[in-house]
Design a protein that fits this description.
The chain has helices at about 5-15, 25-30, 100-110, 130-140, 165-175, 320-325, 325-330, 445-450, and strands spanning about 85, 115, 140-145, 150, 180-190, 195-205, 220-230, 240-245, 255-260, 265-270, 300-315, 340-355, 365-370, 375-380, 390-400, 405-415, 420-425, 425-435. The protein is of the alpha+beta class. It has a single domain (about 5-450), classed as Lipoprotein localisation LolA/LolB/LppX (outer membrane lipoprotein receptor (LolB), chain A, Clam). Helix 1 (about 5-15) packs parallel to helix 4.
Length: about 450
């Protein structure tokens, strides 16, 4: 069944069961599958054609791709940049740049920082059941417990037509993904321009929430992540395990984390693996909740939905993620701009301000969420004096043989300390679809069995 036939078959029957007392009215929800995609993006392109319509057939598979190889090559190898923005012309494009990107041009434009803008491709697709659940969620999912919990949602986009910044950030927090295994090096580049290996790790992630699509999320776990650290020598043998909830961050039901530290020779609970604790995986150059641009409980911030904008962000970075060695990406002050692909995309802009009774090293954060995948594509982090401090980017690539978006590398520029980092990029040939471990692997006992003693 084609996606268009599928949408016609499910949208109208689902509208018949909508609860009129829900957050979004049946008339608003009726847009899903019509002028909006089932996950809430605008189906049409923009006025000047620089953003195309959504492609319900997904990203094309290159003829060179061997199914099952996990070696994702660029589907558009012959494409050239439409234009380049550099230190001489960036102000002409200011309306399509994040605040953080503008700051990078101000700081590094004279040193060669630039962005190569390629044709935009909107090939993010999801399974049929995910579309159906997202349409149902539009009227039956609700925030509860001061936004710390979602009630009534099925595995899908909880709020495909968001009414608040908190609803939009929840869409990012529980975005769709599929099980993966990677081996990656994490580097930071210091103010002296020298790259430093922070960690090498073997990372395995599964997403239990999406294994039972007919059941309400409730207390289900969105993701289980385990990282076995292999380098540098002082960290070899350490293990981190995180269970991230799918709908409930209320007291006692939020994130659960454990660490195995070689020196202590035991597994222990790790409540500090959250919020603004410096993340040792990137040598403390970002916080734990900077990972994936943003993660974890939203409790410490007030959230505002600013609106939707057309913004230039990294996208469809197949060569960068799957083919290049990370050492070739690391310039003295910024990533090699010739190896990063940028596209114009529509994003939801979500601003957040630290609550008066909360503590965090960031006083304000602005996020840019891709309308097709709900993944955060960029973030601007401000200190408590409202000075722009860190600028973050996601470098994603769709897995064209799967109904999944795969944001496979994340980086942050520290404008105050003149350093930057890059994490999550697989070593060439070290990205694998699926996992070969059982659920015991994601338990404290499973960690203890593998611990080095």
């Amino acid at each position: 069944m084609s996606i268009r036939t599928y949408l016609a078959s499910v949208c109208l029957p689902l509208l018949a069961i909508f609860n009129v007392s829900a957050a979004v009215s049946p008339d608003e929800a009726a847009r899903l599958g019509k002028d909006l995609t089932p996950v809430g993006a605008e189906m049409a392109g923009n006025a000047d054609g620089s953003i195309p319509p959504w492609n319900p057939e997904g990203t094309p598979t290159p003829d060179t791709f061997v199914p099952g190889s996990d070696n994702y090559t660029n589907p558009w190898p012959d494409e050239k940049p439409l234009y380049t923005i550099d230190g001489s012309n960036w102000q002409e494009h200011i309306d399509n740049l994040t605040v953080g990107t503008q700051a990078l041009f101000e700081k590094y434009g004279a040193d060669g920082f630039k962005i190569n803008v390629y044709p935009t491709h909107r090939g993010t697709i999801r399974p049929d059941w995910y579309y159906e659940n997202s349409i149902k969620n539009a009227t039956q999912a609700r925030l509860a417990e001061d936004g710390q919990q979602i009630e009534g949602n099925l595995p899908g986009v909880p709020f495909p037509i968001p009414q608040s910044g908190l609803e939009a950030i929840w869409n990012h927090m529980v975005r769709y993904a599929e099980d993966t295994s990677i081996v990656s090096d994490v580097f930071y580049v210091g103010a002296n321009g020298k790259p430093v290996l922070a960690t090498t790790g073997s990372s395995v992630t599964v997403f239990p929430m999406f294994k039972n699509p007919d059941e309400e999320v409730g207390e289900a776990v969105w993701a289980k992540l385990r990282i076995n650290y292999e380098a540098p020598p002082r960290r070899a043998g350490e293990i981190l395990l995180v269970h991230e909830p799918g709908a409930d961050y209320t007291k006692g039901k939020g994130r659960k984390a454990w660490q195995y530290l070689v020196g202590q020779r035991r597994v222990r609970l790790a409540p500090a693996v959250s919020f603004d604790t410096p993340n040792p995986a990137v040598a403390g150059t970002s916080t734990y909740d900077d990972a994936f641009i943003y993660n974890g409980s939203p409790e410490r911030f007030n959230w505002t939905l600013v609106g939707k904008k057309e913004i230039l962000v990294p996208a469809n970075n197949y060569d960068m993620i799957f083919q290049e060695d990370i050492e070739d990406l690391l310039g003295e002050k910024f990533l090699n701009p010739d190896l990063v692909r940028w596209e114009k995309r529509r994003v939801w802009v979500v601003d957040s301000n630290l609550k008066e009774d909360s503590r965090h090293i960031y006083g304000r954060r602005t996020f840019y969420l891709d309308e097709d995948s709900w993944a955060a594509m960029a973030g601007d982090m401000y200190d408590n004096r409202d000075t722009l401090w860190r600028v973050q980017f996601n470098y994603p690539a769709n897995l064209y043989d799967r109904e999944s978006g795969f944001g496979s590398a994340y980086g942050a520029y520290d404008l105050l300390q003149n350093i930057y980092n890059l994490s999550g990029k697989p070593k060439p040939g070290k990205f694998k679809n699926g996992v070969t471990v059982n659920d015991q692997y994601f338990t404290p006992k499973g960690m203890a069995r593998r611990g080095i003693r």
